[in-house]
Amino acid sequence: MPLDTMQTELTQSVPIVLLEDLLSIAMSRGATAADIYVERSSASSVSLDENKIRSTAHGVSMGVGIRVIAGTEVGYAYSDDLEPKALKKAAGVAASIAQGGGHNKAFKVQGCPVPNRYPIAVCPDTIAPAQKVELLRRGDAVAHAYDQRITHVMGSFSDSTKEILIATSDG
User: Fold this and answer.
1) 0.90 surpassed by pTM
2) Residue 46: is it exposed, middle or buried by C-beta count within 10 angstroms (0-12/13-18/19+)?
């Protein structure tokens, strides 16, 4: 399956043509293999204590790791700056582990089917924070109603998602 038909936030942030350039740079000093690992993670949390929301948090991070293998040696570089110039510099740093003859080989990244072993009916990122708060408040009310001896209830709701894309010099 052509990778360019799978438009995600990852391929919008790090286009396929850039991935191919990064593989070429990573392999340019004679490496035997290279791979590019693109990751986007998001996490959110809400905590409740005695029917009061005590904290909320949400964060998103995204970055690119580049690994180059030259025999038994491994070079690695990472960048959370997604500008092509920064990513190309990282690929060059990772490539510096290789001491063999360089080449100007072009690499073509192609998609491959990946089984969905853990299907998610509703992505946590699509649930409004107010719904998460309401779930905690309902839990608080049910706990207090269960037994009058329950005087203190704490609850939290946390979720995280991770999307990855891996491109290798093997295709």
Assistant:
1) no
2) buried
